[in-house]
UniProtKB/TrEMBL annotation:
Domain EAL: 5-258
Encoding gene (name): ykuI
SMART domains given in the database record: EAL
Organism for this UniProt entry: Clostridium homopropionicum DSM 5847
Any GO MF annotation of the entry: cyclic-guanylate-specific phosphodiesterase activity
SUPFAM superfamilies: EAL domain-like (SSF141868), Sensory domain-like (SSF103190)
Protein name: Putative EAL-domain containing protein YkuI
Cited PANTHER family: CYCLIC DI-GMP PHOSPHODIESTERASE PDEF (PTHR33121), SIGNALING PROTEIN YKOW (PTHR33121:SF70)
Chain segments annotated as transmembrane: none
Length: 417
């Protein structure tokens, strides 16, 4: 135990005293501009025993253990800024993202150390994005003071790891970040998770409203990239484009190739999606026109039987219909809710988790009041989770006339991710 402790102390002191730190850079991509717009500066330690690389997690663990955090933190940033300056990216509208833990800010309060580091290498503060991980902050006032001072000097401020754990949205209010980085836990498999997609869209909407740039961090697949871009991420970072590496002309060229390829794939994905939606819309419109023509000729007492037939027809058309029902012009349901055979029971019971029934007032539902107050006869909702079944679905509502009275046919379709 004593030998292990002695080794750790010697290792971290040697790394700091002899600047045994190698800067690594991970590109941050704008697919809209088809280019690299920034790099996150990361660090690796070099072992005193055999020259092997030591992960940042390990070296910062040693530094924290022996009270050398601020020394190591400053050295790592020094090496990243120095390397960035040598690469001559600061004259090409490319930004360097540097990490700083809020606890380090508290220790170095008022030192202006980072500002001096940047100036000493001839890098413009406007090319530096300060990434703040604020999970361990004790004095929020120190953090706010730091952000105000550095923003005044031209630095951009990024809030890191939003969406990880129980992120404190109060920090957004207090720090007013220029950049918001969405955590990898939110990005991983986002193309397969409706919940992640909705949280992602909410955070992007928030960022857009406050004028912040969104970076989707930890993108590893084309599918995750497609989803992130489609739902509004401005910038992309992750292994899909490149792991953190020593930069060279060859590595930059490889990344540029990946960007062009990803852009082509995304355009193809969106083109196919739009085509599928157009075909599906034509099928649904045709089916609705057919069934409405039958409703207009039928007796009102036959509505429930016609709905049953409507659902049976859907089986062969593969439209993923979940249920159908009819409202009158006041929003009162005049039919049963008729389910298709593909509908599953909702595991949630009680409260409001049940299908609407004949005689129920649906006038406060968007598919009623948005339609009835518009100049069109058709409304399609955004995807949502049905209280009746727990499925992700969309509601299409369509006005039709029967004996001079208005009715609304409502069709719930299961939404495929």
């Amino acid at each position: 135990m004593r030998e292990s402790r002695l080794y750790e102390i010697n290792e971290i002191k040697e790394i700091i005293d002899n600047e045994r730190i190698i800067p690594y850079y991970q590109p941050i991509i704008s697919l809209a501009k088809n280019k690299i717009v920034g790099f996150e500066g990361l660090s690796r330690g070099v072992s005193i025993l055999d020259g092997s690389l030591i992960s940042p997690i390990k070296i910062f663990e040693y530094a924290h253990k022996y009270g050398l955090e601020i020394n190591l933190d400053r050295l790592c940033r020094e090496k990243c800024i120095e390397g960035f300056n040598k690469l001559d990216f600061h004259n090409k509208d490319v930004h360097l993202f540097v990490n700083i833990d809020a606890s380090i800010i508290e220790q170095g309060r008022g030192s202006n150390y980072l500002f001096q580091q940047v100036l000493s290498h001839g890098v413009s503060p406007e090319n530096i994005v300060i990434e703040i991980n604020e999970s361990h902050v004790k004095d929020i006032n120190v953090l706010v003071e730091f952000v105000k001072k550095y923003r005044k000097e031209g630095f951009l401020i990024a809030l890191d790891d939003l969406g990880a754990g129980f992120s404190n949205f109060e920090r957004i209010l207090l720090l007013e970040p220029d950049v918001i980085k969405l955590d990898i836990t939110l990005i991983k498999d986002v193309d397969k998770s409706y919940y992640k997609q909705e949280i992602f869209k909410c955070l992007v909407k928030l960022a857009n409203h406050i004028g912040a740039i969104v970076v989707a961090e930890g993108v590893e697949t084309q599918e995750e990239l497609n989803c992130a871009i489609e739902y509004g991420a401005h910038l992309i970072q992750g292994y899909f484009f490149s792991k953190p590496l020593n930069l060279s002309e060859e590595s930059i060229s490889n990344i540029d190739f990946r960007i062009k390829s990803a852009s082509i794939q995304y355009k193809s994905y969106m083109s196919l999606k739009v085509k599928k939606e157009r075909i599906s819309k034509r099928k649904i419109d045709s089916l609705l026109n057919h069934i409405i023509s039958e409703f207009e000729r039928a007796d009102i007492n036959e509505f429930d039987n016609l709905l049953l037939n409507f659902v049976e027809i859907n089986k062969d058309l593969n439209l993923n219909m979940e249920c159908v029902y009819i409202l009158d012009d006041k929003g009162i349901q005049v039919s049963d809710t008729v389910f298709s055979s593909i509908t599953k029971d909702n595991p949630r019971k009680g409260l409001i988790f049940y299908p609407s029934v004949k005689g129920e007032d649906n006038s406060l539902k968007k598919y009623y009041y948005d339609l009835i107050n518009s100049k069109t006869n058709k409304y399609t909702s955004s995807p949502y989770i049905s209280h009746a079944t727990g499925s992700v679905c969309r509601t299409i509502s369509r006005i039709f006339k029967h004996e001079n009275n208005k009715y609304i046919l409502c069709v719930d379709l299961i939404h495929k991710l």
